[in-house]
Amino acid sequence: MKKYAVIALMVTGTLSLSGQHKKLELKKQTFELHNVTGSIIKFQGKKVLKIERDLEALPFDMNNIEATVDEPHYARLVGLEDFENGTIEVEMYSQLQDPAPYPGIAGFIGVYFRIVPDDSAFEGIYVRPKVGRVNNQQYRNHAVQYISYPNAKFDMLRKSDPGKYEGSAPVALKEWIKMRIEVNGDFAEMFINDAKYSTFVVDKMLGKHTVGGVGLYVDIGTIGYFKNLKVTKRAYRAPKNEGVKVDDI
Questions:
Q1: How are the residues of the chain apportioned to helix, strand and coil, as percentages rounded to the nearest 5?
Q2: DSSP 83
Q3: Gene3D superfamilies annotated for this entry (predicted)?
Q4: Among candidates 150, 142, 65, which has minimal Cα distance to 101?
Q5: Which fold has domain 5-233?
Q6: Domain coordinates of the chain in residue numbers?
Q7: Where are any strands of DSSP class E within 29-172?
Q8: pTM, rounded to two decimals
Q9: pLDDT tens-digit profile of 9-66?
């Protein structure tokens, strides 16, 4: 039986500079900051990674949202460049910047994976905690988002396939959210807070690159805190034939 390869982040706090990207040393792990600012702080009694989008390094244009969101703004786990299939787990906490840099901020926070070395392509699943529990189902349906950079960001997918790459999830601002993403071939599913069944599925991911790195993502207006990241690599598993006919529903 093939053993799982597990990478766990136990957060401490050293800051260094190397090359183009600032790096944060976290015990035996290193985060490389791509268009985000970051630090290691003590938060609610635990040391965590705190990041915010760097609007000087990567400006945001509220009149050109499609071109300036869902970009490479994340903290990349150094030393893991070959994630293809497996599990990504992380605990994350989202709060809004005050004052808000843009009226439409929603606490955007999540995970990028299969990131190619030059940041030119990756897959991503993130949440909008601000709308996770609002009393409006239409807004709740935007609580989870899948993207595939660079050709399938949220705005394009919302127009081309309404509802297919978004969904609801029981998430909220200012509380810890445990996200688990299972990746298998071109299929991905997301679990929230140790739920037995997945909250959200992507039945066919759109990226052409199937191997790459893993990173922690925030977007405009989010102060994001992360802890307990684990990445488990696994061989591809042939899907079980458990399909239910849904064409006539």
A1: 5, 45, 50
A2: B
A3: Exo-inulinase, domain 1
A4: 65
A5: Jelly Rolls (2.60.120)
A6: 5-233
A7: 29-34, 36-43, 46-53, 74-77, 86-96, 109-115, 122-127, 144-149, 166-167
A8: 0.91
A9: 443 333 334 347 999 987 778 999 999 999 999 999 999 999 999 999 999 999 999 9
